[in-house]
User: What shape does this take?
Amino acid sequence: MKTHWVNITKGDKESFFIIYDTLYRSLFQYGMVIAKDREVVKEAIHILFYELWEKYERLPVDISDPKYYLFVWLKRIIFRQLKAQEICFESLLEEPYEESVETQKIRIEEMMERERHIHAAMARLTKKQRHYIELKYFYNKSYDEIAISENAAVRTVYNVIYEAIKSLKSHLTVILILILNYYK
Assistant: This one.
């Protein structure tokens, strides 16, 4: 990751896309913890990567972990967006506005650990099951939209997602319940 970061500071597009692909989901999940609004988070991530590319020449090369650097950058963008929308921060955050760097790192590491468990469970699914789950829960597509885009019957989509969830349940009962409730 650090090598790709250094390459980005030199204007390497391939490293830029690798970091984007590698961190998008983690950034999205972290953003959802802060804003709880999918559209705000998606927009913030797009702004983050736009600013990252626009400012690549001025980026610090010697940061210890680019992942944490981008998480903090995303958090600031989200707060900037929410302030622009005149949303009260107190109603969005149950915790104090500023928390220690250590606390932030611990929370990010816990989130990434949960994500690793989810990816391991997702890897056990068939390619079709994994694809349908991603469309349904990560891209917020309806069963009808998935059926149309995949040229399948709606009943087939229901069945594939049902079997995928059943498989995931056996591996991730607690985490899966949290995810499904979170993305309703």
Summary: The chain has a mean pLDDT of 80. The first helix runs from residue 2 to 8. The two ends are 32 Å apart (CA to CA).
